[in-house]
Write a structure and sequence with these properties.
Ribosomal Protein L13p, Chain: A, two-stranded antiparallel sheet, 6 strands, globular
């Protein structure tokens, strides 16, 4: 009987790629799901839950983000100051006017697991409101996100 050893990736062996996602072509949920999977490295063969082996993700055109249904008026973002009566709410439309990058960062943050690796993964997420970004030198690979068809 031959004993097989389980391979565990070392942090020094991780090769991080750069990916580019255009947020104007798909919905908010699909952009956030794709970004969260790339940041955590779930598509890699050496994926380990206890080691951060994800890639860098650049999201462009956050200002022209698409949402389905009545989410522009019905989806709310809450912030509390800690004092009585300190609850502040904003709709998705208001948040997109003030800072569209925060909408994508908030959605991706909610899709990553709440553990010690989350902050490092979020630091590799770069979101820009327009198509201009300073990461041209890294030669990010354009990721094409297409809508999935649901069979009924």
């Amino acid at each position: 009987m031959i004993a097989r050893k389980t391979y565990s990736v070392k942090p020094a062996e991780i090769d991080r790629k750069w990916y580019l996602i255009d947020a104007s072509s798909t919905n908010l949920g699909q952009v956030a799901t794709s970004a969260a999977n790339l940041l955590s490295g779930k598509g890699k063969p050496q994926f380990s839950r206890h080691i951060d082996c994800g890639d860098f993700v650049v999201v462009i055109s956050a200002a022209s983000l698409k949402v389905s249904g009545k989410k522009l008026t019905d989806k709310h973002y809450y912030k509390h100051s800690g004092y009585p009566g300190g609850l502040r709410t904003r709709t998705l439309a208001e948040q997109l006017q003030l800072d569209p990058t925060q909408v994508i960062e908030h959605a991706v943050r909610g899709m990553l697991p709440d553990n010690k690796l989350r902050q490092g993964r979020l630091s590799r997420l770069k979101v820009y409101p327009s198509e201009d970004h300073p990461h041209v030198a890294q030669k990010p690979e354009m990721l094409n996100i297409t809508k999935r068809k649901v069979n009924k």
